[in-house]
Amino acid sequence: MFPTLPNIPIQEIRNEFLSKYKVQLYIQRDDLIHSEISGNKWRKLKYNINEYFFQGCQSILTFGGAYSNHIAATAAAGKLLDIQTHGIIRGEEVMNPTLKKAEKNEMILHFISREEYKKKDKSKLVVDVLDALKNPYIIPEGGANLLGLKGCGEIIQDIDFDTVVCACGTGSTLSGIISGLQENQLAIGFSVLKGGGFLEADIVKNLQLLQSGHQNWKLETNFHFGGYAKYKLDLIEFIREFWQENSIQLDPVYTGKAMYGLYSLIESGELSGKKILFIHTGGLQGIQGFENRYGLRIF
Predict the structure, then answer these.
(1) Tell me, what DSSP letter sits at residue 145?
(2) pTM for the complete prediction?
(3) What topology does CATH give the domain 40-143?
(4) What does the mean pLDDT of the chain come to?
(5) Are 290 and 253 in contact (CB under 8 A)?
(6) How is domain 10-35+155-294 classified at the CATH fold level?
């Protein structure tokens, strides 16, 4: 079965900026859960892998891009628990730090064109892979299914906060957080996708699956910096300054954008007087690949 969740520290951030706007900010360090299965990926895999054992399956097949945190985490979990994993990778065959690590963790990679990838398990390549496997367990991209949502519903460890904040890719993590809120709390998700407003409908569907009627949430869509895995220099500078001041690394794809957005909302006065919990969802494994891709160094 999936390992027991370790104790997760909640770290307070103190500086003149937060004092000026009368905000208390804490970071739940889910990035410290495990060196390779960190943040929301641990949460999304927990019940999926327990279901794998319950069904008596013999391998796991999942999906993701070439820099996917989910691919990296699934491969690491497979290595840890002696499960053969297969990754359907979107796009042309490449090799980067994320995929090299996945292979080191004994995941078998299957590359597929972006057009075919859109078909997911109806693609001929995917069907051929599934036909060659005996009793595989399929986890969707990002671990975004009901079991993944259930795991994310356990993220909130301490309810003594007015506002809970996280980065938002598929909407699954935010959905789980919302389902675990008290009525007097607010969840804010920062979409890392350009045109991420469509996620609102997905979040509503997720909450229906979780049988949650909570409406105390909002999705911010103005801090994507050009789109998924895109960036601007002020984002990189913000991440560097945050690291220098707090000794906490943020990644440029997810948590960096969310924290930048949060600071912008604080500066607007919108969150004055609030006690805020920021969920650090991990994703640090992708930094090296991001740096190599753009020819820069963040830390």
Answers:
(1) S
(2) 0.95
(3) Rossmann fold (3.40.50)
(4) 96
(5) yes
(6) Rossmann fold (3.40.50)
